[in-house]
Amino acid sequence: MSGIGVVLNPRSRRNSRDPRAAKRIARILGDNGILREARSIDELYRIAEDFQRLKIDVLGISGGDGTNHVTITGFINVYGGSALPQLAFLRGGTMNTVANSVGIRRGKPEGLLGRLIRDYAERATRPLVNVERHVMRIGEHYGFLFGTGVVHGFLAEYYRGGDPTPLVAAKTLARGVGSTLVRGEMIRRMAQPFRGSVLFADGSQWEKRDFLAVAAGTIDQIGLGFRPFYRYAERPQSFHMLGITASPMGFVRELPRIWRAEPMRAGKTLEATSHRAIIESADGTMRYMIDGDLHETRGELEMTVGPRVKIVVGS
């Protein structure tokens, strides 16, 4: 068979608060596809194997950015060199930066799934519209966004603030800016520098130094509408990487430019587009973010461009 297969993460923050979400999704999906709940990585791999055997055309993911990147990682590992199904991000989580960046309309998972079912049924006369983006392979994970330093620190503070929502994220940013102005304790927590180096595929290198952040993306946005990776599509099969060297105050002054997808002023950041980078932390510990999920590892971290995926945005 072909059709729509939906993976729902019952442990995502939004779905865990709404235990009836799976039943509503199943009712809307009906005979138009298959719904599976992934409560563990092992379950996710079994689901991917089933969907590959059934030749699913569209993979719907009900979760936020974190669920998306974990699901994509599992499916890439199972599918191997075979192309993934088209991806439909159903916004079932609290962070939906990737969906925002590629132009997926806002709405609840049930509404987005209903529209997807209608569009899929009419695909013979109105083909599904998708956009294509590369994912990055970051260590053993795949995702669209990466960040150390203040990027990791901001998210750690955001999750510390209670139930994470876009409003909490905006308030965390506002508090961080205010703390920067008065040199408060919060910004000292958020903006602990990343000391390390970056080696690129062409042999160029960012020498060991303190960075406010090293960050990269294969989409332009990083959250709350800020678009630092405006060069993400400049070269085929590459990501846009920033090594931010500004002080916290200097970075705050650059936020309007980042919002407008403009380059930061001279002396504030290093930039590169590449298909491969090796990041090494001076103290041997890497604390970083992938699509909103926080990770920590020892030793150097290799980043490469991963597969190009198709993301459904309409019909």
Automatic annotation (TrEMBL):
<dbReference type="Pfam" id="PF00781">
    <property type="entry name" value="DAGK_cat"/>
</dbReference>
<keyword id="KW-0808">Transferase</keyword>
<dbReference type="InterPro" id="IPR001206">
    <property type="entry name" value="Diacylglycerol_kinase_cat_dom"/>
</dbReference>
<dbReference type="InterPro" id="IPR016064">
    <property type="entry name" value="NAD/diacylglycerol_kinase_sf"/>
</dbReference>
<keyword id="KW-0418">Kinase</keyword>
<dbReference type="GO" id="GO:0016301">
    <property type="term" value="F:kinase activity"/>
</dbReference>
<dbReference type="InterPro" id="IPR017438">
    <property type="entry name" value="ATP-NAD_kinase_N"/>
</dbReference>
<protein>
    <submittedName>
        <fullName>Sphingosine kinase</fullName>
    </submittedName>
</protein>
<feature type="domain" description="DAGKc">
    <location>
        <begin position="1"/>
        <end position="133"/>
    </location>
</feature>
